[in-house]
Amino acid sequence: MTHRVLVLPGDGIGPEVMAETVAVIELVNQKLGIEMSLEHALLGGAAIDAEGVPYPESTAQKAHQADAIILGAVGGPKWDGLDRAIRPEKGLLGIRSDLQLFGNLRPAILYPQLAGASSLKPDLVAGLDLLIVRELTGGIYFGQPRGFDTTDDGQRRGYNTYVYTESEIRRVTVLAFDLARKRGSRVCSVDKANVLEATMLWREVVNEVAKDYPDVELSHMYVDNAAMQLIRAPKQFDVMVTGNMFGDILSDAAAMLTGSIGMLPSASLDQAGRGMYEPCHGSAPDIAGQGIANPLATILSAAMMYRYSLNEPQAADAIERAVGVVLDQGYRTGDIAAAGEASVSTSTMGAAVRAAL
Amino acid sequence: MTHRVLVLPGDGIGPEVMAETVAVIELVNQKLGIEMSLEHALLGGAAIDAEGVPYPESTAQKAHQADAIILGAVGGPKWDGLDRAIRPEKGLLGIRSDLQLFGNLRPAILYPQLAGASSLKPDLVAGLDLLIVRELTGGIYFGQPRGFDTTDDGQRRGYNTYVYTESEIRRVTVLAFDLARKRGSRVCSVDKANVLEATMLWREVVNEVAKDYPDVELSHMYVDNAAMQLIRAPKQFDVMVTGNMFGDILSDAAAMLTGSIGMLPSASLDQAGRGMYEPCHGSAPDIAGQGIANPLATILSAAMMYRYSLNEPQAADAIERAVGVVLDQGYRTGDIAAAGEASVSTSTMGAAVRAAL
Ligand SMILES: CC(C)[C@H](C(=O)O)[C@@H](O)C(=O)O
Ligand SMILES: CC(C)[C@H](C(=O)O)[C@@H](O)C(=O)O
Question: Is residue A289 part of a domain?
């Protein structure tokens, strides 16, 4: 069976890190005898430039046909002046929603070789391995009604709707519990159930789902406390599950705990396990085109793709092992180099990973 | 002129830390010849127990007559089983809204004597002094409509409304800029204007207000990035201003950066500068009644009260100086004692502050 993979290089450093990643994918396929067709399409600013919209119909068609999608990053100041409706972020939100990629997996793993990069004291983060499961196609990001109006006394007003149905909550919670079973068997659900009705329902449904997982330990935490606990003692967590908005905030905080966001991949899955894979970092327009970006987060996103959507775990293992090897060998791009340490280019890092394969 | 101050001991450790604080207030008044009438009332769980509601009419009346309110903390597992409408948190939200205490000041200050308590590396937090100004009476906490309903296909659904008008945004932004002028003259406004309409208006209005403050430097940051930056390099911030929900999360994160949340006071101000003052920490039911809670955050809240609502800056200075002295002298309650260090009781700490006055 031939896997159909869609490549979306995106904007900024996206095309640079994607070139290295595609080369890694091709080598892995060749070594392991994996059949794959790779198609390319545009998303975000690149799509706006070429076709006037951030998520063109041609990209949507290819996306629906693919078994998995690998994405670089979208956005940049170049498109800041545009009307909101056609900005690069809309392309990202559009494809997530169109493909119903409701389950966003954001691991925060501390690589022992990079332990010094964390802003936290070493003993608090040594061995950190937590997984945030963020609901990605609902909540306040997509809730209706939303927009602007005018109050009776003539003031401008802006509004959004934070809304969850039980099925939206259930499917992402089931995903989190299933993943926890393969890890530390602990789930912490994050809400603000002491204030927000939408998250009271969240807590209720999570408790219902938990009944089917007596072997998994469930706890609940308010979002303000969760933000504190991530800073105080991040290793207390195994899997955290939360809504779209809280997940956006907490997963970035968790990523930063490692100090090396240039290393962190992510997956966004639909009900059938098809998914989109992308680095946690953004398009970094300030360093785009210089050939110095870290390709490892995107390369590790490809590993997640093999594992979660293509059912080729040996390819995932091979890539992750190779990344470990290059870190051991001392290869560092600028973002993960310690003060005074020499740094290598994007293409050198990519070549090192391929050599380690 | 006699200042009218209302004391709300609240629940859990609230009454214990408040007893020490009232004793400090009385001593300061006596030493500096400040005239003050102190009234007491119930809020939260204590009010539920006595009168069946978390914010009784009698408390509201006294609150409206007061120049300032000092609060311990509310809530505890004892009231968890109650109907949402009469839980302790409702008392807190009720009094904030009733008195229109829209401007919540949450300083995160690292005391040099307690530098070791932070989970961040020392050089990242040494000298940390940031102020979060959180909008406290609007946004998703109070937006209508809110509640539960059923979808067409029979599913439960929970929803809230995130809404801001321009006047709500303007008054808290003006407060933040005014405060920034007395500090480092920098304001960072936090929003999610790449996704949420309510926060697009937020950014627009902040930009309008900024025109009146050419001497204050303004920046904007998305909330996910702000959570990262607080962990990566918290000293980059002077004043941060944000909405109710983001402020809840970020101010707790910022407080935790110091490692000593038992030290941090807060103020909640109305348009006329009347305010409610309370520690950042909660009611800590696990240690309530043991006489070991740290009273310093509440004592420092009294200092903020003298400064912001009573216009008695010399009293505020005296209290803050006294707290510095007891820390220098080595007094530590359990929460701020280093491993192996001896710790003192709530009353010993209170007495030490009074002795230092
Ligand atoms: C770019 C933005 C719309 C997006 C989000 O908020 O989801 C990003 O922050 C992310 O987390 O992937
Ligand atoms: C208790 C709760 C309602 C409250 C809030 O969310 O505002 C608390 O977390 C706070 O920050 O004062």
Answer: yes
What order do you get walking across the sheet with B147-150 strand by strand?
A: A147-150, A156-165, B156-165, B147-150
Is residue B51 in some structural domain? Answer: yes
Q: pTM score > 0.90 for this model?
A: yes
Distance B355 CA to ligand 2 centre (A): 33
Given A258, A274, A294, the domain boundary residue is A258
- Does the Cβ of A194 fall within 6 Å of ligand 2? yes
Both A205 and A301 in a single domain?
A: no
Token pair 């995106």: residue: A10
User: Residues of A numbered 93-122 whose beta carbons fall under 8 angstroms of chain B's beta carbons: which are they?
Assistant: 93, 119-121
Question: What per-residue confidence (pLDDT) applies to B271?
Answer: 96
Domain containing A89 equals 1-108+264-357
Work out how many domains chain A is built from and give that number.
Answer: 2
- Model pLDDT, residue A83: 84
Pocket lining: B278 vs ligand 2, CB cutoff 6 Å: no
Q: How far is the CA of A248 from the centre of ligand 1 (A)?
A: 7
Looking at chain B from residue 143 to 172, which residues have their Cβ under 8 Å from any Cβ of chain A?
Answer: 143, 146-148, 151, 155-167
Residue B80 pLDDT grade (very low, low, confident, very high; cuts 50, 70, 90): confident
The verdict on A309 and A352 lying in the same domain is: yes
Domain CATH code at residue A93? 3.40.718.10
Q: Do the domain assignments include residue B319?
A: yes
Please state, in angstroms and rounded to a whole number, the distance separating the CA atoms of residues A39 and B255.
48
